[in-house]
Hints:
Blueprint (H helix, E strand, L loop, with lengths): L4 E5 L4 H12 L3 E6 L7 H10 L4 E4 L5 H10 L5 E4 L6 H6 L1 H21 L4 E7 L23 H19 L4 E7 L1 E3 L18 H9 L6 E4 L11 E2 L1 E3 H18 L3 E6 L5 E2 H12 L5 E4 L14 H7 L7 H17 L1
Parallel strand pairs: 1-2, 1-4, 2-3, 4-5, 5-6, 6-11, 7-10, 8-13
Antiparallel strand pairs: 9-12
Helix pairs in contact: 1-2, 1-8, 3-5, 5-6, 9-11
Bound molecules: nicotinamide-adenine-dinucleotide (NAD) and uridine-diphosphate-N-acetylglucosamine.
Amino acid sequence: xxxxxxxxxxxxxxxxxxxxxxxxxxxxxxxxxxxxxxxxxxxxxxxxxxxxxxxxxxxxxxxxxxxxxxxxxxxxxxxxxxxxxxxxxxxxxxxxxxxxxxxxxxxxxxxxxxxxxxxxxxxxxxxxxxxxxxxxxxxxxxxxxxxxxxxxxxxxxxxxxxxxxxxxxxxxxxxxxxxxxxxxxxxxxxxxxxxxxxxxxxxxxxxxxxxxxxxxxxxxxxxxxxxxxxxxxxxxxxxxxxxxxxxxxxxxxxxxxxxxxxxxxxxxxxxxxxxxxxxxxxxxxxxxxxxxxxxxxxxxxxxxxxxxxxxxxxxxxxxxxxxxxxxxxxxxxxxxxxxx
Length: 340
Ligand code: NAD
Ligand code: UD1
């Protein structure tokens, strides 16, 4: 057990809330910095119900340097930062690129500046498999070359990785872990926290659960003519609770090893097609999904999945939640939010 204090920016969001639960269950003291741009304060109540502990909370916008400085001043005793705070809607980023560059990059720069000022030496950053684009060979390893992203959102991840690398290189005391998430799905098994999409979901899993509960008529399956075994797009779907655990493994490794910078793929190592996901959801929940095949979605890569060996070897972390359990938790969460 650890009683270290960890600053979790974006901790009221989807992945941040699950990571806060995992951190608190492991004995860490968590302080969340979040402006609630894409989350609600009720998440703090739900985290308290699950863990029995209420995380500390600072309602701040990480792009506001004065607010970030004040918050670091109150929590300068933290051991590390897990930086989730970002906007993440790919399509929106194409329409509002400056909003994305400003929010995602200024937030990161402010956090790094204040970490330096307050001698907080450890940061875990939420990167994405989007940095690989469409790799020439699969699975994607951490050495797979990164590619210019097709959206400003994706580009913020590439730029953020560079900003962190350069900052660590210039500060011998600083350590960073870049976690490249594949496709996070699911919810806490209690169904009390999960993903809260705004408007029409872009991502597959919340779309499926909204169809399942009758909120949407049918799922559009984007393309059935991909060069994959069944013709449908292939992704590596990682349970959000497993993903949360990866952050704790990353923090521990960073603090114990003293490595300057490390990068890890966080996925299962297994690629599944859209149709396999639909069928697994139906089998696990007993609910049929109405779907129709439509054209490919522009920007979709045909297939990508992770080589997750490095995280297993170095962090001792691997995905463990059976996919059926992930589906049932996503469905339980959807049923809970549909009630309200
Ligand atoms: P989310 O939108 O649910 O959570 C992000 C949180 O950050 C929200 O609570 C939001 O209010 C907060 N936030 C945003 N801008 C802020 C700011 N300027 N100041 C303070 N708080 C701010 O998203 P998520 O799915 O939990 O994603 C977390 C991180 O993981 C993001 O960096 C995202 O880009 C990255 N990521 C997500 C996925 C995914 O599929 N969900 C995949 C790869 C990477
Ligand atoms: C998308 C983003 C990616 C981002 C990630 C997490 C695009 C092109 N990529 O990844 O940059 O990091 O979300 O937010 O937007 N699908 C359907 N019907 C749907 C929704 C999705 O068939 O209604 C299919 C897609 O074609 C894809 C798979 O389901 O093959 C997964 O889609 P999604 O959940 O949006 O994730 P990614 O496209 O992998």
